Amino acid sequence: MKMRKGIPLNDQDRIPWLCNLHDILLRDVATGQHVVLACSALKKVYRDILIGGKDDAPRKCAEPGKEEKLAEVKLLVVHLSGSFEVISGRLLQRKGHFMPPELLQSQFDILEPPSAPENFIQISVDKNLSEIIATILKVLK
Virtual CA dihedral for 118, 120, 126, 130, nearest 10 degrees? Predict the structure, then answer.
């Protein structure tokens, strides 16, 4: 709702959602499924939450009194990188998307691109879709 109004989300908005995504990933992986999750985990702490759940979240998300380590998810981050101009142009072509183009700068402002020791690959959005998919599949094999 905030984004539709042109208000960027903050950590307090994102962390409960990321904790829920972690739980969904854990559930699906536990049943033997291979899972693809597409989301803008812009900060390292967000990716840590996707991997480790509430234990890796700031205390606001963690349940008080629960000290046991939660299960982790093995995660490969596919970082699609591109210039502000390219991504802005594509965003302007979207119709009916929940995120107004005016919020793109706020996304770039908080972006912490993945780095070692995170498990990630970086792919330029300048590649065509089939090249992007081929690169991801090659890494997954």
Answer: -170
Backbone dihedral region for residue 65 (phi beyond 0: left; psi -120 to 50: alpha; all else: beta): left
By C-alpha distance, which of 25, 10, 133, 37 is closest to 72?
25
- Taking residue 34's Cβ as centre, other Cβ atoms within 10 Å add up to 7
Token digits of residue 35: 């899972």
Query: Measuring CA to CA, how many Å separate 7 from each of 2, 11, 12, 15?
Result: 5, 13, 13, 17
Q: How far apart are CA 102 and CA 129, in angstroms?
A: 25
d(CA 62, CA 42): 20
Q: Are 42 and 72 in contact (CB under 8 A)?
A: no
- Tell me the per-residue pLDDT of 57-112, one tens digit each, with 9 for 90 and over: 664 454 544 544 456 778 899 999 999 999 999 999 988 877 888 999 999 999 99
Q: Please tell me whether residue 52 adopts helix, strand or coil conformation.
A: helix
b/e 104-140 (16+ beta carbons within 10 angstroms → b) = bebbeeeeeebeeeeebeebeeeeeeeebeebeeeee
